[in-house]
Amino acid sequence: MTKLSPLWAGLALASVLVPDARGGDYHVGPTLVCGDCHVMHRAEEPAPAPVDPDLRAENDAVLPREERAGGLLREDVNDLCLSCHDGSSRAADVLGHNEGSSPGAIRQAGYLNRLGGANQAGTGHTLGSNDMAPGSSPPWQADLDGPPGGGLDCIHCHLPHGRRAAYRNLRADAGNNLPGEGLVTYNDELAGRNDLARDVFVRRARDYDESAVDFNEPDATDSAMARFCAGCHGEFHGVPGSKAIGGLDVGEGHVGFVRHPASGVDIGGVGGELSSLERLRSHRTRVKVMSSSASWSALGPDLTPTCITCHKAHGNGNPFALILRSGRGAPTEDGDTDGNSLEDLCGQCHVQASPLALP
């Protein structure tokens, strides 16, 4: 048996004793293991070098854009990330069918596709794509934010070294966002204990099923998740009354939205007939919405839709990663087993989307 040095033995023991109470984020604190991703020399299967424990502390630094293709990485960024995040028992599977550490989970973010892969482009985020991001203002594409020819990679959205404050290691400066503008916070003290001042409630650590995650609304006029998405899709986001969203009262209970609001409008709270909380309550399977009082089960009057109410963040099998959920079938990453049309999704909240009366 190989004998561990005192340093490595201590680190191994610490990895057992440190409780995994955070919301599933790796590459941060005691799980920031340099040898997972970096090599000192290009030898076959190099042994990881001992790591100064001080370097395992919280790392809020952002990897410089020009270092995306360097940094002594073991492989290209996407290949490196997918070596653990595609069909591996070590981590969540983020590409295509769920064969990773959580098989059978209805992944909150869905799944990515990749240029040259089996999944159809246009159903979410496409790794390797250099297409202009829809609704980006100013126009944004991957080659403007990394080495030319690299296309979209995982660290356009995620911090490779992690950040304790950030849900799923999401960048706070993705796309056109200014530093800190797109920060999405989550409860990281103890899984299962909610903090309404943070944006995401992770009920169970290391669980990527949508049932393990709910979304708070610390600011009833804003959505942190929408601000994050706006880094690349800014023309689709804004507060009600802004040019991007509209929302002027045009009389008789009608509100002149030009795009679906992603914050600041509670279901059933504007225009009366525009959306129906009773409609949402009538469904067995529902899309995920924000709440300022944690009323997701009770379905209180403070429920607010945001970007990931209607779209899977990574993608799924539908155009634009839409969640076609009828409310009747068993939940799937595409919606549910009975959902097959845009009207199913809209009908989660809008009576007008269905010719049928409220069930």
Task: Sum up the structure in keywords.
13% helix, little secondary structure, globular, 359 residues, 3-stranded mixed beta sheet, 8% strand, two-stranded parallel ribbon
Describe the fold and architecture.
With 359 residues, the chain is low in regular secondary structure. It has a domain of 122 residues. 13% of the residues lie in helices and 8% in strands. The chain is built from 6 helices and 9 strands. It has a 3-stranded mixed β-sheet with strand order 3-4-7, with no helix packed on it. Strands 1-2 form a two-stranded parallel ribbon. A hairpin with a 2-residue loop joins strand 8 and strand 9. The longest helix is centred in the N-terminal third of the chain and has 12 residues.
In short:
The protein is low in regular secondary structure. It has helices at 6-17, 77-85, 224-233, 277-281, 307-310, 342-346, and strands at residues 113-114, 126-127, 200-202, 213-216, 246-251, 254-257, 290-291, 331-332, 335-336. The protein has a domain at 232-353.
**First-residue to last-residue Cα separation:** 65 Å
Report the uncertain regions.
1-24, 45-69
The helix-strand sequence is HHEEEEHEEHEHEEH
- On the 0-100 scale, what is the average pLDDT? 82
Instruction: Summarize the main sheet.
Output: 3 strands, mixed
Number of strands: 9
Structural class: little secondary structure
The order of strands across the largest sheet is 3-4-7
Strand composition percent: 5-15%
Secondary structure: helix percent: 10-25%
Q: State Rg.
A: 21 Å
Number of helices: 6
Outline, from the CA principal axes? Answer: globular
